[in-house]
Amino acid sequence: MTESLDAIFSSKYLTAWMPMLYVAWADGELSDDEIAQIKSKAKLLPENDRAILETWLNPQDPPSTSQLLKLARELKARSKSLSNAERLGLAELGAALAGDDYSKAGLAELEVSLGLAGDSVADIIQDARHDRERSGESANFDVKAMKTVLDGPYAELKHEVLSFLQGESFTYDYTKSTPQAREQVLEWLKEIAGHGLGTYAYPGVTSESDMGAFVTIFETLASFDLSLVVKFGVQFGLFGGSIYHLGSPEQRQQYLPDVAAGRLLGCFAMSELGHGSNVRDLETTARYEPETDSFIVNTPRREARKEWIGNAALHGTLATVFAQLEIGDESYGVHALLVPIRDENGKPMPGIRIEDCGEKMGLHGVDNGIIYFDQVRVPRGNLLSRYAQVDDKGVYHTEIPSPGRRFFTMIGTLVGGRIAVGAAGNTAAKTALDIAIKYSDQRRQFGPENAPEVPILDYRTHKLRLLPRLAKTYAMTFAGHDLVQKYLEDQDKEDKREIEALAAAIKVAATWHATDTIQASREACGGQGYLRVNRFASLKEDSDIFTTFEGDNTVLSLLVAKSLLTNFQSQFAEERVVGVARFIGKMAQTAVSQLNPVVTRQADQTHLRSREFFMAALKYREDDLVFSAVNRLRGRMAKMNAFDAFDSMADHLVAAAHAYTDRVVSEAFARAVDRVEDLALKAELERLLTLYALNTIHEDSGWFQEQGYISGPKARAIREQVNLLCDEIRPQAVYLVDALSPG
After folding, report:
1. Residue 382 near residue 337 (C-beta atoms within 8 A)
2. Residue 735 is inside which H or E element, if any?
3. Which residues face 397 on adjacent strands?
4. How far apart are CA 301 and CA 299, in angstroms?
C-alpha cells in the first residue's frame, strides 16, 4: 500500500480525496455500505486513480496507523499555504488542496452521506498554522529564546536526541500486538545503545558527562514512546545504575561497557509481591556458603517472588537481585547481587523460574516478568561491593557499621531513577498540552449571532482547563532543573536523605500532574482526543503507572513528610529551648503581620499578584502544617506506638508534604524568572509564575480560610485573578506551548 500512498500524494485528482480518506479511516472501520458509497462517487476518476483509491477501501487490509500518520503529515504540510484552511469542510479542503473545484460537489455529497458534514478539520491540520499568527495575535516574546531557557543546560544534547528520533526506524505504530511492540522496543533500545546514548548513564566509566545528561536523554525520549523510555530506564538507569552506584570500580569496568552498548541486557529485581515499597523487609535471601565460596539465592515463599521486573519476561540475561544477606547465624540486611537468569540461548538458568506478568493497561513494549529463585548459587564476587564486602573467609566488612544508615546509603544512591521518572512524566504533560492547546486554538464552535465561530480556547472554561496546567508544567520544568543540579552537587555526600526526599516530592508532583493534565487535555479535544492516532490513549495508558512506578506516590508523600518532621525536630534538638522559642516567635510575627484583618481582606490586584503575598502564603501553609503535625504526633505518641500515631494522621502528613512541594516548586520557578535578562521573556514567565502560585492557593482556599489567612472576599478575588491571568495568557498560549513542546 506504500506505492498507492505515494501515488495519492502525486495525483491531482486523488489529492482532493486526501482529507476524506484520512477522516473516514481515523474515525473507525468503514462499513460495506460506506465503502460502496465511496466507490460510487469515485467512478468519474481516471481508471488508474480509481484502482489506487480502491486499495484504500479494503476492510481486510485497512491503512496502518503509520500510513495514516504519513497522510496526516502531508495534509498538514500542504495546508500551510491555505490562509483559511481551518474553516473549510473536508470537501472544501480537498478541492483547495487540489487547486480545482472539479470534484467538490461530489465530495460534498459524500461528506454528508458518510456523516462527516460539519466535522472540523483542525485536528488534521493542527500544525498548518504553526508558522502563521494564531488568533490574530503574534508572539510578544522570542519563542526560540524561551525554548532555550526551558531546555536548560543540556539543550544541545536534547536537540541531538530529537534529531536522532527523526530517523526512519523511529516510526510509531499503534496497531502492533504486545509481542511485536516488545521486539520493536528492543530494536529501538539497541539502536539507541549503538548511537552511544547509553554511555551517558555512567560518567567516569563510559563517558565524561554527568548524570544530568542521562536525565535529559530519558525525558527527551519520553516525547516519542514511553515503553522505550521505561525499557531505556530499566537497562541503563536501574540495572546499569545499580552496578554503577553499588558496585566496586572493578565491577563497574567489568560490566558497564557491555551494558551501555546493549550487549548485556539486564533487570533490576527489587520489588516483591508481598512487600512492594517496603524494601527493608523483603524476603529473598542470599546465604553465604563457605564450602563453595558462593551465595545461595532463594525465594522462601510465593509472596517473596520478584514481580514487575522489567526486561525479565524475555530479554534480560543478568539481574541485580536485592536480598537479605546472611552469613552463618547473622543477617546483615538488604544487599544487591548480580545473578545470571538466562543462558546464551535465552533459556532460564538452573534454579530460575520466569513468568510473564501478562497483558497490562499500557507499556505493551516492556517485558515485565516474575522471577523465582530455587537455591541458585552465584560466586561471592557477584556481591555488589561498594559499601560492603565478604572476604574469602566469609567475614563481612563495611565502612558503614550502622545497618540503618548503610541501608539508606545504598537505597539513596538509586534516587536518580525517581528524578528521571518525574522528568518523563512532565514530558508527557508537555506532549498532552501541546496537542490540546494547539487544537483548541484552531477548533471553532459557536459564537455571537452573525459572527464567525469562536476558537474553543477563548471560552472561560477551556482556558481554566488548560492554562493553569500550562503554568504548572512550566513550574515543574524549572523545579526539575534545580533538582538535577542539587543531585549533582550532592553526589559526594554520604547522607543523601535530603535529596532523596526532594526527588520523591518532585516525582510525586510531576507524575500526578501528568495524569491530571493528560486527562484534562484529552477532554479538551472532545471526540478527536479519543482517537488513538491523536496520542492521548497511549499517553494515558503508558504514563498511568508513573504514579506508582519508582515508589507509590502516597507512600513517597509520607516519606517526604517524615523527612520534614525529622528535619524540624533535628533543628530544634540542636538549638533546644531557644530554637523552639524563636520559631514560635516567628509564627507569632506572621500572625501579627499577615493574619490581621486588614491583610486578610486586602484584595487589590497589586497585592494579590505580588510575590511577597503568594510566596509568604505558601510558606505559611507549609510551616503551619509541619508545626501542627509535630504537635499532634507528639501528643498521640504519648497514647500509642509510633507506627499507629503516624498512621492515624497520615492525611495531615500528606498535606504537609504537598505544601512543602508547592513551596519548593514556586521558589524554583521564581529563581528561574530572576535569572532571565530578556524583559519580554521575564514578563511572560512572571505571569505564568503568578498564575501557578495563585491557582495553587485557590485550589486550597478552604484551608487558608479555615486558618483565617484570607477572608471569603479575598478568596473570591484570588479566583478572579486566576481568571484574569488566563485571559492575559490566552493570546500567547500557542507560542508558550511551542516553547515548552518536547519536540
Report:
1. yes
2. helix 733-740
3. 389
4. 6
Measured in Å, how far apart are the chain's first and last C-alpha atoms?
Answer: 29
Q: Which three cell numbers stand for residue 708?
A: 483565617
Domains observed in the chain: 2-113 (no CATH), 266-409 (2.40.110.10), 417-740 (1.20.140.10)
At residue 508's C-alpha, the angle toward residues 504 and 513, to 5°, is: 150
Q: Are 375 and 298 in contact (CB under 8 A)?
A: yes
Contacts of 160 (CB under 8 A, 6+ apart): none
Assign 64 to helix, strand or coil. coil
Angle between helices 460-489 and 733-740 (to 10 degrees): 30
Phi, psi at 516, each rounded to 5°: -65, -45
Q: Take residue 525 and report the three cell numbers written for it.
A: 479535544
Per-residue model confidence as pLDDT tens digits over 675-710: 999 999 999 999 999 999 999 999 999 999 999 999
pLDDT tens per residue, range 449-470: 767 778 889 999 999 999 999 9
Beta strands at 318-327 and 266-269: parallel, antiparallel or unpaired: parallel
Is the CB of residue 403 less than 8 Å from the CB of residue 461?
no
How many whole angstroms from its chain centre is CA 245? 24
Q: Rounded to whole angstroms, how far apart are CA atoms 234 and 265?
A: 9
Q: Is the pTM of this model over 0.85?
A: no
- Distance separating alpha carbons of residues 371 and 542, to the nearest angstrom: 23
CB atoms within 10 A of CB 124: 24
